[in-house]
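Lab meeting, item 3. Inverse folding demo.
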């Protein structure tokens, strides 16, 4: 039987090391896999089907705000994701919740609080700091639209947001150009967008607010 595993996804080596230490002290029976970019998160999830919980930093290379969270929730809906972020803006916390996170742990939280939050999520619960931000119907609608996309369509959408043409997207994702065209048409329809630019603006809205 494979060992239960945590995925720690953060591009800051010092914080990642500190978090791994907390996990080893409180969850000794769990194995820990690390990732430092959106791309290595995807590889780790494919290589380690035994992953039971993802601890995810929002600001990693290859990620656009909440894109990694939405991508994980779409592709692995059964695996809880806990956002760990230095951005404690109330609306960032609320959006994390609305976009499917099982928890949100500020990086400033003490080790005991982090461990308690993770334990709560592992037991099937959720853990969020007290939030002053109200639920956003616009975010709820956006999350519902994005949830309609297949994992491949989500990848194509992120490429559109980067300004890539169909030919470039085909090369980037290893697809036929005609397949990309089909995906783009489906994406625009599902997101109720009239143009690629409009879809790119929608992705831009996934960027979290400044913590300031």
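The presenter then showed the designed sequence:
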């Amino acid at each position: 039987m494979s060992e239960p595993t945590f995925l720690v996804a953060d591009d800051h080596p010092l914080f990642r090391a500190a978090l791994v230490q907390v996990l080893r002290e409180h969850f000794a029976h769990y194995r820990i896999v690390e990732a430092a970019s959106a791309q290595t998160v995807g590889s780790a999830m494919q290589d380690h089907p035994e992953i039971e919980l993802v601890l995810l930093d929002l600001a990693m290379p290859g990620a656009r705000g909440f894109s990694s969270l939405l991508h994980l929730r779409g592709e692995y809906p059964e695996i809880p994701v806990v956002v760990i972020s230095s951005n404690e803006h109330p609306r960032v916390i609320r959006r994390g919740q609305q976009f499917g996170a099982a928890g949100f742990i500020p990086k400033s939280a003490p080790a005991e609080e982090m461990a308690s939050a993770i334990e709560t999520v592992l037991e099937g619960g959720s853990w969020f700091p007290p939030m002053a931000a109200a639920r956003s119907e616009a975010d709820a609608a956006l999350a519902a639209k994005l949830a309609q996309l297949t994992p491949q369509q989500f990848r194509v959408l992120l490429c559109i947001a980067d300004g890539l043409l169909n030919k470039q997207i085909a090369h980037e994702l290893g697809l036929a150009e005609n397949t990309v065209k089909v995906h783009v048409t489906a994406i625009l329809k599902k997101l109720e967008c009239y143009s690629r630019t409009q879809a790119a603006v929608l992705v831009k809205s996934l960027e979290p607010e400044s913590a300031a």
